[in-house]
Structure formats: C-alpha cells, structure tokens
Amino acid sequence: ARVAVLNDGMARSERREREINAAVAGLAEGLLQRRAAEDAAAAARDAASAEAVRHSARSAAADAAAIESVASLERRAREVDSRLLTLEEQSRVGIQKARHLEECVLDLEDQRRTILRLG
Hints:
Elements: H1 2-118
C-alpha cells in the first residue's frame, strides 16, 4: 500500500511538473512574441525616424537651394534696377539734349526768317 501511495504521489508530481513546464513554456512563448513585436515596432520607429532624418536633410538641402535661388534673384533684381536707373538718367539727358537741339533749330529758323525778311 505504501508503494502504491508513493507511485500515486510520483505520478501526480510528474503530472504537476508537466503542467508547470507547459505553463512556463506558454509564458516564455508569450514573452518572446511580445519581445518580437516590440522589436518590430522599434525597428519601424527607427526606420521612420531615419526616413524623417533623410527627409529633413533633403528638406534642408532644398531650403538651402531655395535660399540661394532667392538670393540670386535678389542680386539680379538689384542689377536690373541699377541698369534701369542708369537708363532713366541717360534718357533724361537725351531728352534734355533733344529739347536743346529743338530750341536751336527753332532759333535758326527764326534767324533764317529774319534774314529773309531783312534781306
């Protein structure tokens, strides 16, 4: 009878050990799956972060190019403005000279008429 009780106790212990082993294996599997999911999420975040950094670098390069382009356009606008001012001044001087020549021509015509009248 004692052997039967001991055999029964050993069988229960072995069954309990298998149940505990199965439970531990289930917990370990759950932890591994959770860890894999966390690793995948971290990899996705890292990839998104890397893409954001690359995008930021491209954006910074595009911004730098745009700033350089705007600066170039501003320089060009100042050059054109300077040339326009020079042309305006030259036009003013040309108009003054043309008026002066017109006055000279009118004076010469008056003198010619006067000479014809007197002559």
